[in-house]
Amino acid sequence: MKNKGLRFSILLLICLSWIFLMRKMTYPLDPSSILKFEFIGTAEKARSFLNTLARLGHTELMTLSIYLDFIFPLLYGAAFFYGSAWVCSKIIIGHPLNKFKQLARMTLMAVVCDFLENISLLQLIYSGPDDTYAGLAFVFAGIKFLLLALVFIHFLLTLILSIMGKQSAEI
User: Fold this and answer.
1) Can you tell me the distance from the alpha carbon of 46 to that of 44, in angstroms, rounded to the nearest whole number?
2) How much is the pTM?
3) Dihedral angle computed from the Cα positions of residues 53, 56, 61 and 62, in that order, rounded to the nearest 10 degrees
């Protein structure tokens, strides 16, 4: 896997571009509303949220946002994959932070959770508020963000340690 850092950089730029494009396509929908909807938790809250969206005329924008969000996990999944591969290649093989296979699995699980969460959110919109789908969206969103946070923290920590290691080797 050559040029891991370059692939990571390109995918990161594509992710940021996709976020920008998604926001442009779903304007004037509040960007934080998708996050609120992911963590809605109950059918009662979902009903209230969806009624508010309907009053604002944003139900179609929310639906579009969810459909566009099916592409985003593939992009951030690939970016996290190559980012993890890149930082793990910067440290020695026996180092306790050199856990690329576990990081790749965590990233894959986060992507799957994101897909399942999106399906649950679409069910809330199309089938009507239901505690099962609201709860599933909440659980899958929580797992997704937890896994991505762990992978991101590992990325930052490993990057800092590799930079510090290079600086101490130069001295």
Assistant:
1) 5
2) 0.91
3) -10
